[in-house]
């Protein structure tokens, strides 16, 4: 009896004096702020009552002015410039801020795709080509616009994988990142920056199903279970509402945009996900805390 008491006391003492295991640190990123009113509202909803405090703002978006006003009223939010030279949606298109004829179609809009896509033959940046000088001017204009309107910018990101598609564009964004002192978080060498990108995950470690809200929750929680103590990670998604604004928004191959992004919004506010973050010892951080 005495021996058992002594062992229990020693175990309790060790649990008190042993250093706590360092949490995994996760930045949850919300893309495309400024693209639609629905997106702006959902992002601010998640910021107020969800698990993300980091957004990517698009100066070329139709709802960019509203996004700027919203960010001004949320001083704790972490914002990056989401550099865009494509406009993928049917029924709503974005134009550049500068004169860049190599980057636009006959109507003056950005092309819909970065790489060739059978549903949009000939309508990709890869097929049409581009003038890197025009890309630089456009990216600079987007950065300068956002710096003027959102003084607390912390980083750069890219829309639709322009850096991954073109090493020349990746190199350009690195130059701009150094010049403006805004780290490029979508760079292919992001592991060197001290974090890894994570996605929805299945129990076997592959990409998990994420069609319904239940699938999103389960696959997100599976991802949380895979995170390693003391390591940094970034997860990105696209909140919006399934409302009348989003109902006509689609591109071929991605038709259920409103419903899907409503599920994202709900998942990022889910009590089940919040509990899993605690159970898995995962600390939520802003993107600015990754570097």
Would you tell me the structural class of the helices and strands?
Answer: alpha/beta
Task: Give the overall shape, derived from the CA principal axes.
Answer: globular
Any low-confidence stretches, pLDDT <50, length ≥5?
3-7, 9-19
The string of secondary-structure elements, in order, is: HEHEHEHHEHHEHEHHE
Helix content: 25-40%
Radius of gyration: 21 Å
Distance between the termini: 53 Å
Number of helices: 10
What can you see in these coordinates?
- This protein has ten helices and seven strands.
- The protein has helices at 2-17, 37-49, 64-72, 125-128, 132-149, 162-165, 167-180, 213-226, 257-268, 271-279, and strands at 24-33, 54-57, 78-83, 155-158, 196-197, 232-237, 282-285.
- Strands 1, 2, 3, 4, 5, 6 and 7 form a seven-stranded parallel sheet that branches.
How would the blueprint of this fold be written?
Blueprint: H1 2-17, E1 24-33, H2 37-49, E2 54-57, H3 64-72, E3 78-83, H4 125-128, H5 132-149, E4 155-158, H6 162-165, H7 167-180, E5 196-197, H8 213-226, E6 232-237, H9 257-268, H10 271-279, E7 282-285
Parallel strand pairs: 1-2, 1-6, 1-7, 2-3, 3-4, 5-6
Helix pairs in contact: 2-9, 5-7, 8-9, 8-10
Describe, in short, the structure shown.
The chain is α/β, with parallel strands linked by helices and 291 residues long. It has helices at 2-17, 37-49, 64-72, 125-128, 132-149, 162-165, 167-180, 213-226, 257-268, 271-279, and strands at 24-33, 54-57, 78-83, 155-158, 196-197, 232-237, 282-285.
